[in-house]
Amino acid sequence: MSDEAESQETIRLDKWLWAARFFKTRQLAVEAINGGKVHVDGLRAKPGKPVRIGDRLTVHKGSLAWELTVQGVSRQRRGAPEAALLYEEDEASRRRRQELVRERREQGLGDLPKGRPTKRDRREIERFKRGGET
């Protein structure tokens, strides 16, 4: 296959995000795209938008954001090391994201409880609401 043919190879945006391991399922990728969390070349896109090598993507996931350049196209989901070869992240984007993660760790926001409070947690909440009474 020639270089020109490889550069013209396209894949749906939702499939590319799934193959590059930004989202666990294609459905989650579709929901993010429809929610305006993914932009292609600075414009809001639809899940079926063809993505080709050289396209610039902006992906927002939670409080984190990635600014990427598409480096490869894969129709299969592979391991993380292979998936990382599909894109190149901007250095400024990488630094901002790492700084945000570092700040959250320092503030202790990375260890938020998941799910419902336990019985012990409920007792502590009630104790707090009553003003420290035992």
UniProtKB/TrEMBL annotation:
Gene Ontology MF: a single term: DNA binding
Gene Ontology process terms (BP): cellular response to heat
Region (Disordered) location: 98-134
UniProt cross-references to InterPro entries, sorted A to Z: HSP15, S4_RNA-bd, S4_RNA-bd_sf
RNA-binding S4 domain boundaries: 11-72
A Pfam family the protein falls into: S4
The name this protein goes by in its record: Heat shock protein 15
